[in-house]
Every structure is written in C-alpha cells, then in structure tokens.
Amino acid sequence: MKGNIKKFLNLIHHGDKNLFFLFNHKIRCKYLDIIMPKITHLGGATFSLFVCLFFYLFGKVEAKSAALEAFITLTGSQGVVQFFKKTIYRKRPYLDLPNVNTFWKKLLKDYSFPSGHTAAGFSIAAIFAFYFPAYSYLIYSLAALVGVSRIYTGMHYPSDVLSGALVGTLFAFITHALTGTNGF
C-alpha cells in the first residue's frame, strides 16, 4: 500500500513538471512575456485588498456586502494557504527545476504549495459571482488567468494553482453560506 501511494505521488509530480514546462516554456512568446507578469499581480495582496476596499467604499449595498464577504474569504483562505506552505515545504519550481523562465530579479524564497495569488483570485471571483452572476464567466476567467500566470512566470506548479483555486473557492462557499444574503 505504501509503495502504491509513493508511485502515485511520483506520477502526479512527473505530470506536474511536464505541465509546468508546457506553460513555462512551450507556449512562451513575447506578448505573453509582457502580459502574464502583469496579470499575476491581480492575485496579489495589494490588488485584492484594493478591490475589496473600492467596492466597500464606493459600491451600492450589494457591492458592499460582496466586498466585505470577499475580505473575510481572503483572510481565511490566506490563513489556510500559509498553514499549508509552512507544513508541506514544497520548493518553488525555479528553486527545484533547471532553466525555469522567471520575470523578476528578486524572487520569492517562501514555499510553493498552494498558490496564494490563485487562492486570492478565486476567493474574490467566487464571492462576486454569487452577488453578480451575470459577470461570473468574466470574473472566473480573470481568476483562472492569474493561476496560469503563476505557472507561466515560474512561481508555481500546476497542482499549486489548482489547490489554490480550490482553497479560495471552498472558503468563498463557506463564507457565503455563513454570512451571505443574511447581510452584515
């Protein structure tokens, strides 16, 4: 049983590396080299908090509720992300693999699993999709692009991104179930 689990994990890691190099090397082009490092910041702390603050200060009642829920979701999901990063200790791809394309001079030294940027993107996307379902395709597409950008820029493996999306979405569902539509 133990050997089968190890084989399964090795298979996943091998597939993860192959998918990583597909996004980080094979689809690389000068246009994506310009766009992806900018898109990745949509999942960063500054932009995520700005979105919540902007909609809370300038939005109508529904937007204010969504912003407050998104902030709660962000806080909870990022706590879970940090717990896993400090528990699993997965090195970032550029620290673990050869010839990784990166786009910054100063690279992160923390751990890779799960992707906090992706968790933030999906935390906000899911909450705002609850309140504004007509925009859900657009909102989720932006969150997914943040995740792809994290792989493209060499920061995360695909499984880091998928797990970040799951954490963010799951926290949004929990937050919305506990606080949503009841108002604040």
Automatic annotation (TrEMBL):
Listed EC numbers: 3.6.1.27
Topology class, membrane: Multi-pass membrane protein
Protein location: Cell membrane
Listed SUPFAM superfamilies: Acid phosphatase/Vanadium-dependent haloperoxidase (SSF48317)
The entry's keywords: Cell membrane, Hydrolase, Membrane, Transmembrane, Transmembrane helix
Domain annotation Phosphatidic acid phosphatase type 2/haloperoxidase: ranges: 66-176
Any coiled-coil regions, as ranges: none
MF terms (GO), sorted A to Z: acid phosphatase activity; undecaprenyl-diphosphatase activity
EC primary class: hydrolase
Domain of life: Bacteria
Membrane-traversing stretches: 39-59, 111-131, 161-179
A Pfam family hit: PAP2
A single GO cellular-component term on record: plasma membrane
InterPro entries in the record: Acid_Pase_classA_bac, PAP2/HPO, PAP2/HPO_sf
The protein, known as: Undecaprenyl-diphosphatase BcrC
